[in-house]
Each structure stands twice: as structure tokens, then as C-alpha cells.
Write a structure and sequence with these properties.
Layout lengths: L14 H18 L1 E5 H20 L2 H10 L3 H15 L8 E6 L11 E6 L6 H13 L8 H11 L5 H26 L2 E2 L12 E2 L4
Antiparallel strand pairs: 1-3, 2-3, 4-5
Helix pairs in contact: 1-2, 2-3, 2-4, 3-4, 5-6, 5-7
Length: 210
Amino acid sequence: MAGGAMKYRHLSRKSSHRQALLRNLVTSLFTHESITTTWHKAKEAQRLAEKLITLGKKNTDASRRKAESIFFEPLRLLPHLFTTLRTRYLDRPGGYTRVLRIEPMNKHYDQAPSAILELVDGPKDMRFLMTAKTLVRERTTEEGIREITARNVGKVTRYRPDGFQELEKEVKRMEANVGDQAFRENAKWKVDERPREGHGERQLWVGGGK
């Protein structure tokens, strides 16, 4: 109806092509936990992904048949949906996925708005990783942990199994990486006084090579 609210994005495709596109996107999402696509495709795929996780939480024969009709690779993804993901989101009332805006992927062409579509509380949860990185930085400052960071800690650990322990483990891993990187930088720029081949006297040089 002219002037009516748009119920969904057509994505410039006919219905059958649109459904195949969305099925392919959610199949990739449940395979890799995170995908990068255009903003509009991500928002539409998010709706289908949320429905799939709801079907997984119901765990009935009807929900299994429905999920099987959506996935392109049901034999591989159905066990993942009805075991791993069902357990992960069993206590979460909703909001199983997240869409994050990023810079356009095709900067030299159409510059279409791009986004990352991810499953929350998973191994590739961007907000979880960004919160851990912020904690690493703020723990070394005089001001300490900011209030907004403390709120984000509560958000990313609220429904995550062993959330605080997992976050602290990630923080320690990042702190170790920061220490290793600082060590490599110091080793890279140290002054070596070893004599170089072809020179009779010792010469100063900068670098980490042999």
C-alpha cells in the first residue's frame, strides 16, 4: 500500500533471491559466529538469525524442521544450534545478535554502508573484546576504571557463562601480549656493537637482525 510502513527491506531482489541471500548469510553467521556485509543485509539477516535461535531454545520437532528448512547445511549446523547455542542463550531473554557499523568495504565503488553481524557472548564478541581492551588500558591510569566501563563490564558478563572469569582471562591474555610487544619493540631498536662483515672495526647499528 502506498505510504504504508515498510515491513522488510527488499534488498533490490525478488522474493526467492532475497530468501536465498538471507539463508546464505545466516548459514555463514552460524558457521563463523561473525560476518561482514552491508548494513541493510545485516539488519535483515539479524531478524532471521534471532528467529533461528528462538527455534533452538524451543527444541521441539516442529522447531527442528523449521530450522532445517532455513539452513543451507542443516546436518552440520542443527547440532550446533540445538546444543551449543541453545545452552549459551538459554537464560538470555533476547538480543542474541549484534550489528556494528563499520567503514564501507567498497570504498572505490558504491561506498555502501557496511556492518559486522555477530552472535553475542561468543568467541568473536566485539563488545566483549573491546571491553577487555579498555580494562587493560584503564587499569594503568591514575583515574582507574571509569563508570561507563564498569557498566559495560556488567553488560558483557551478565548472561555469559562464567562471565567475569572469562573477561579476566581475556584481560590477562591482552596484558601478556602488550608486554611481549613492548619487549619486541625494545629488542628491535637496541644498539648492537658487533663488527659487521667486511669492516675491520666495530660499528654501531640499529636493528634486531643477525
